[in-house]
């Protein structure tokens, strides 16, 4: 018999869980479908394990940067202990705790792989081959995320490369690790593995953190060099081979060769939509799902599918491939699904309860390198390309008293991008030790469009790194005088 629910959510990662939870709290019956581990990528192969791999090295380096503490540091990071602590955060890849949460939230978990068989109908095939037929009364949400892109490099597939999954779940540290790519996964894993004992070579054709302010990539590159990472910027692999002894040989475009025990490819992501049966409902498999601001999936004509029943949240809609943004979308989607199911008013005006407006202009992001990179909103270049009249203000964070106390020889840079016409901040970037703790104040300023004349009255405590806000505002005052 077909099982019916008000809402069916495909994908029980952090995003899908949040959609399901919001809808269940609103009184809807919900089925959550998962083919792998409940908790998804973030819990087992991304956010949590990667930050656990990075934290110990960050703490040791922080201690070594403070006189009186550095004298107490007598050893190196214990790689085995770091891996064990990482394993504890993933519960050794056992999702029973997450399953208990789903049940406790009043949500039905259906194990298996879901395929659309028609409008609001799905077949879920479990690992043992058994099938379950599901039908949604009101909505289906796709929250299946993304997978690593493997570029078309001769020999790559045969070389059994690592993706972010293998890098965050490895149980041993390879003596040598080659990394290809220039984004967040690349620089975070280069930081982690260099700290844990690998000899790391990083190959990035377009440089590091190309979508951030230029100084972010420059400061992170300097830090990676200090960790002993061999940076090959402006270069790219032309062939990759793994020999019978397990050694990977990567030939670069300049003719040089890198030898390593493992190679990590982190050059982008693809939507996990290829095997969902999207063609049965008029959509194209293997493509990102385009959505409106309430997360309704749009068809080829740019309109929601007939009946306005299909939603997509998280990576799969390609708006912002970040867990916190996906969860933000999930809250909006879960609430609007409840509202539409009950015939209630939909608040879909900009910044309304049922929309994800922030995805367009207020996306916060932290890269957990050492120094960290924290940013929100538009870069100076993006603001210029958007046609805004702006003033850009930079300040060296180490000149703030709180930073000097925090770390001996503190190195870091802060930048704000101000829309001169509206006198509000539209972008901010901070690079330096612990700057991630500055980011939410910047997020509030950007999302709230706080006028600079009011922001002057948000007095930073002394002596803290947050005093950089005062210096940035003073810099803007000098520039605009």
From TrEMBL:
Domain FAD/NAD(P)-binding: 5-324
Annotated binding of NAD(+), by residue: 181-188, 268
Domain Pyridine nucleotide-disulphide oxidoreductase dimerisation: start-end pairs: 363-469
Domain of life from the UniProt record: Bacteria
Disulfide bonds: 42-47
Entry cofactors: FAD
This protein's UniProt keywords: FAD, Flavoprotein, NAD, Nucleotide-binding, Oxidoreductase
SUPFAM superfamilies according to UniProt: FAD/NAD(P)-binding domain (SSF51905), FAD/NAD-linked reductases, dimerisation (C-terminal) domain (SSF55424)
E.C. number(s) listed in UniProt: 1.8.1.4
GO biological process: 2-oxoglutarate metabolic process
Cofactor note: Binds 1 FAD per subunit.
Binding-site list for FAD: 51, 144-146, 315
GO molecular-function term, one example from the UniProt record: flavin adenine dinucleotide binding
PANTHER family according to UniProt: DIHYDROLIPOYL DEHYDROGENASE, MITOCHONDRIAL (PTHR22912:SF151), DISULFIDE OXIDOREDUCTASE (PTHR22912)
Sequence similarity: Belongs to the class-I pyridine nucleotide-disulfide oxidoreductase family.
Entry protein name: Dihydrolipoamide dehydrogenase
Organism: Herbiconiux flava
């Amino acid at each position: 018999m077909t099982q019916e629910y008000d809402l069916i959510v495909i994908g029980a990662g952090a995003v899908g869980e949040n959609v399901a939870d919001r809808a269940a709290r609103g009184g809807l019956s919900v089925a959550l479908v998962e083919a792998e581990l409940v908790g998804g990528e973030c819990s087992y192969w991304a956010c949590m394990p990667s930050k656990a791999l990075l934290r110990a090295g960050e703490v040791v380096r922080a201690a070594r940067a403070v006189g009186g503490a550095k004298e107490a540091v007598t050893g190196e990071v214990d790689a085995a202990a770091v891996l064990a602590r990482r394993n504890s955060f993933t519960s050794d890849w056992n999702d029973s705790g997450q399953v208990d949460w789903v049940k406790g939230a009043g949500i039905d978990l259906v194990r298996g792989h879901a395929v659309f068989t028609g409008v609001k109908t799905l077949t879920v095939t479990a690992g043992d081959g058994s099938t379950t037929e599901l039908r949604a009364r009101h909505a289906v949400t796709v929250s299946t995320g993304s997978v690593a892109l493997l570029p078309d490099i001769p020999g790559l597939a045969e070389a059994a490369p690592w993706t972010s999954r293998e890098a965050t779940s490895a149980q041993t540290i390879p003596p040598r690790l080659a990394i290809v790519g220039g984004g967040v996964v690349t620089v975070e894993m280069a930081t982690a593995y260099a700290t844990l004992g690998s000899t790391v070579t990083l190959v990035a054709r377009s440089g590091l953190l190309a979508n951030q302010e230029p100084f972010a990539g420059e400061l992170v590159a300097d830090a990676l060099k200090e960790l002993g990472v061999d940076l090959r910027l402006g270069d790219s692999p032309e062939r990759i081979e793994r020999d019978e002894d397990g050694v990977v040989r990567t030939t670069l475009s300049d003719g040089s060769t890198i030898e390593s025990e493992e190679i990590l490819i982190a050059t982008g992501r693809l939507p996990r939509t290829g095997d969902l049966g999207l063609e049965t409902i008029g959509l194209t498999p293997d493509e990102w799902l385009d959505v409106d601001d309430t997360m309704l999936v749009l068809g080829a004509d740019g309109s929601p599918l007939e009946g306005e029943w299909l939603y997509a949240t998280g990576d799969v809609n390609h708006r912002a491939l970040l867990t916190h943004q996906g969860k933000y979308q999930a809250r909006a989607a879960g609430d609007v699904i409840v509202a539409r199911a009950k015939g209630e008013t939909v608040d879909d005006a900009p910044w309304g309860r049922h929309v994800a407006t922030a995805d367009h202009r207020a996306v916060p992001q932290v890269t957990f390198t050492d120094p960290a990179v924290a940013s929100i909103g538009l870069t100076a270049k993006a603001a210029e390309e958007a046609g805004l009249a702006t003033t850009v203000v930079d300040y060296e964070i180490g000149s703030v008293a709180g930073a000097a106390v925090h770390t001996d020889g503190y190195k870091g840079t802060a930048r704000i991008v101000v829309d001169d016409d509206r006198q509000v901040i539209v972008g901010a970037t901070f690079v330096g030790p612990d700057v991630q703790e500055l980011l939410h104040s910047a997020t509030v300023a950007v999302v709230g469009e706080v006028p600079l004349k009011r922001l002057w009255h948000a007095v930073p405590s002394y002596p803290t790194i947050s005093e950089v806000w005062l210096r940035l505002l003073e810099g803007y005052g000098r520039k605009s005088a």
